[in-house]
Structures are given as C-alpha cells and as structure tokens.
Amino acid sequence: MNEAELEQGLISLRKRETALRVVIGLYLVCTTVALSLWGAVIGRGIDQEGDDPLLLAAGLSGGFYAVLFIASIVAVCFWLNRAHANLFVAGIQDLKYKPNWAVGWYFVPFAFWFKPFQAMQELWQSSHLADERLPERTDGKLIVWWACWILGNMIANLSLKSSGFASAINLLDLAGYAFHIVAAAVLLMIVNAVTKAQSSEMSVRHAFA
Q1: What residue ranges do the domains of the chain occupy?
Q2: In the 8-state DSSP scheme, what is residue 168?
C-alpha cells in the first residue's frame, strides 16, 4: 500500500464530498420548491399555457431543477470514481468494480438497472472493512437509495412516453420528483458514511488492511 498516495486520495475524496454536498443540497432545495410550486399549480387548476405568476415561478424552478440534476450527476460521478480508486490504492483484494466502470455502468443500457447498485454495495462494504460481502448484509440505506432512484426514473420515463417532452406537468411527474428527493437525501448519508469510513479507518491501526 502506498500510504502517501492513499492520503492524497483521501484528501481528494473529502474535497469532492464537500462539492457534492453543496450541489446536492441545492438540488434538494430546488426540487422541493419545484414540487411545492407545481403541486400548487395543479391543485388550483391553473392553465399551464397561461401567464399566472405561480406558473412562471414553477417553470423557473423546473429550469433550475434540470440544471442542478445534471450538476449533481457530475458531482456524484467524480466522488464515486475517487472513492473506488482509494480501495485499489489501499490494496483491498478481490474487487470486482474498477473506478471508471463504477461510474460507467450508470450509462450502459439494461446494466444501469443493477450494476451501479452492486458497485455501490462493494464500495460500502470495502470502505467499512467488511469481512464478508454477502447480499443479506447490505445496509438499508443502499436499498432505499437505489429503490427510490429507480422508481423516480421509471416514473419520469413513463410520464415522458405517455405525455411527451413538452407536455404539462402532472401528478405522475410530481411523484417522480418526490422519489428523487428521497434518493438524493439518502445518497448524501451514504456519501458521508463512506467518506468517513475511509478517512477514519486510514487513521487507525486497521489502515484498510
């Protein structure tokens, strides 16, 4: 194990975690506002082709949501790559997922339904120095995060196929927003836990074994 290289990797990981927390924090605020505003628009029966101030505010929040959604994906990818790279630098054995593929699987058709979760599971367990990597030992936060992420994406795809890209926002879209909010919030917990696990284990005598 190259301790100097690993220490640099841990410093980089903490910096990327800070950036990720800022971006996803903004995303959570914006998405919650968008959910509330669009809920009010739908609840009041406001014509979504009109110029009502509430509608304009909802549309603006939706634009910020789209930008922050993309920014959050970028921030997560950078953090994931560094976190997985640290495992290799630390000399963890029998790893199945390399840093680039831990990110790349999110963009591979069909595989994106399960491979990213498996990579995150490996990252979680290896960062916490788990002795056995068994599916039944998967932390509940990973399951909640992935279930909400998948459900949010499925709902978004269903809404797009049924109504079209430029269609009015409906309750199905709001459900997708809600699932993505939960997924992002739980992901922050996972990121924080993994970053702390890698950093703390490095500072004690276990030192990633």
Answers
A1: 3-22+70-203
A2: P
